[in-house]
Task: structure prediction
Amino acid sequence: MTRLLREHPLIDVELDHGGELVAFRWNGRRERVEVCNRWRIDESWWSRPIARDYFKVVGGDWLALLYLDRVDGSWHLERLYD
Amino acid sequence: MPLGAAHRLAPEALFLDPDPAADAAALKAALDRLDGFSPGVAAEIDPALPGFGQVEVQLDGLARLWGPEPAMVRRIDEALASILPGPPLAGIAGTRFAAAVAAALAGKTRSGGTVGSNRGPSSEPAALDIVSPGTDAAFLAPLPAAMLSRDPEERARLARFGLRVIGQVAELPRSALVARFGPGGEWLAARARGEETDPFRPRRAPERMAMALPIDPPVSDVEGLRFVLHRLTSAFGDQLVARGSAAARARLAMELDLSFSVGGIPPLMEIDQLLPEPTSEGLAIERLLIARLEMAPPQAPVSRVELELGDVAPAAGTQLSLFTPQTGRTGRLGWQLVRLGLRFGEDRVGWMEIEDSEAVLAEARWKWRRVAGSRSAEDWAPTGRSAP
Amino acid sequence: MATPPPSVQAALSSLQERLGGAAPRWGATLPSGRVEVVGALAVSPQPGLPADLPTDLPTSSDRAISSGFLALDAILGLGGLPRSATTSLHGGGTSGKTTLALQAVAQVQAAGGIVAYLDMTRSLDPVEAVARGVELDWLVVLTPDTLEQALAMAAMLLQDRTVDMLILDMPYRPLEGASISAANLAERLGRLAALARRAGVQMIVLEPPSLPAALAGALSQVAALRLELSRQAWIRLGRDVVGQRTEVRVTRDRFAPPGRAAELRILYADGGLRDACLTRDELLRDGSAGPGLVSIAWRLGANLSASGAGRTGMRDGAAPPGGLPPSPLRHAARPTPPLHSTAKSVFDDETPPSLLAPPSPSNGSQQVLRAIRGGASYPGRPALDGRAGAGREPVGIGAGSPARDAARGGP
Result:
């Protein structure tokens, strides 16, 4: 099962020099992660564009799904696997 | 009988010209007054028909409002004293036939427990005969069998078969009566055994039932109102059950006593509540209304409460799905959720529903189905009943 | 006379309790060998509040429901999660608590139960819940703001016994927004558990990874069963993490000595063609073979990358013709429906798909993954245990829901 965080909370992320995601911060905790899968979606570009880069990340605590909103550059947490 | 012969038989009698219009008007006025006592009142209003003059009042559950049955009859008697020419004869029984017989006997004997009246000393109080619940058949058994029917042909046939008292008729197998009397035999058998023969049809079509209670002294706390409301809802509940009806909405109107209040409070507070499903359950209605009152208590003491049940219709059975045991319980759950919604906010309680499981965005794949007072039962019960 | 299947038995006996002699009965076996159910429909006499509804569900066991994991059931005192008692699930992030809880929901619903889910974290995913065998029609979702409000709502539900199971998904920070102290909350939690026991309602508490000591203490007092879940290892498919092995340790069991442990294997399906690989153990990199399939969750769509750029190109790979090779998880009699897709297969690919080359669109499976509005299952969804995830068949409750079938017997 995954938990789908319905409000998609904003998170802070840390990138390494190569631009790879190495950690995110949520709920007062910093989680070092490794990206294990990624994909991109582009939706309704003709009206209200939705463009997201999804990152499935595995950390010490959580397996999680994050995305970068390419429209405004914000990072969100969408799912926690549990 | 010619008038002359009558004069000779009863020289002291005062003979009145028949005035059907006046009789009908008096009965109409009496019925209007009776409506204030019971939501179930029926009578023949055509003076030309034999049933004219007999009024049926449904008393189920009304003891909570008006006290025990003799007291109820006394109140009715008082209310009708100025309208009707003489003291009424009253009978209370489990079936309408037995009640009519009891009333007739009360008139004959005048011994079956008369009740007091504050009418002048010259007038007599109403005569009352009460058949205890469940004893209709026993009460009828020793009475002449001819009382079972108005039809002279049927009466003659009863006599020909040697059936003198109702008890003898009751002992016969139903099939034997049907064989000898045709379809009427079924009816005779039911009457004789103290069973109701046809459904009670109140004169006012029961899509709406209303009753009011004054509160003296006025109360403002919900606990006090709960007490009054309980009396009203349980009276209604019994009435609905007795009729096999169910109500789909409830309206509570409260008159506020503003003598000690600051201005700006409207004198009437109303709550209109759609019920999650048509019900005859007084308790369910009460709890829902109390939940509404707890959400928004009255701002001043309440001096009068009127409860009106609307969209009253025959209670339909719910079709249960054999393979979904849950469906039998959705009714109860629905009521519960409406109350939860009232207490915690309607956006806090609901169901999730898949809208498009293929949607690219996870948030677009489903939507909420919220509990709301305005929803009909069909909205949420998947194998629910049709909307009223 | 043939004995009806348990699902029918449950339905019949609940009708019998409700309707008495008017309820349909299981009839005689006809000469043709078919069994006749006498009375297909029943009419309930009165709508309203029936006061004497059966509170215990007449299935598998009167005292417990299967957790959906055979290995776990085997180490529990009652052979499952206790009915009419509180079970608390404790564990860190991604430990499998939610999977376990929803598995239990599906089990209770299959037995005719109604479940209330107090979703304080606002994170229940209905699409996944359905894939796991949960029926949304019988799942009331409550979204209280605070733990305090949740406890009040739960108490109301318990008083009326309108539900058979209550899932309390505690927020990540249980004390946030509370107007009363932790000790007070703990006391209320204890009272709620006592109420649940009296009302005969099963309660499952999902503890957040870091639970304040006062609440943790209260829970360990009131719970009849407390399970501690800890992740042992990830299961990988190529570089991607697709599942985990979790150890469940019984830290408290009122019905048996605590301390026993079992290992569960949980696989996450992200949707899309690649999930078919999850049925093939040889493709998964996993510390141990484990006790076979225990659970697979489906998530639809995320990998479908359905629109726009994703639809072009990327048709070079080919799925094995005629469907997938036989899987150890599949019932032999039920072939996997062929996936009519020509999407690129990725299970032999060690590198993750790049951002610029979106993962394969699988038009074929998109066609069959159509949800029934408000329905309980998805016909034609390629199910991991090899059964066509057939819609609810007209006979028998719970027929054909993949997760539930996996939960019932396992392979």
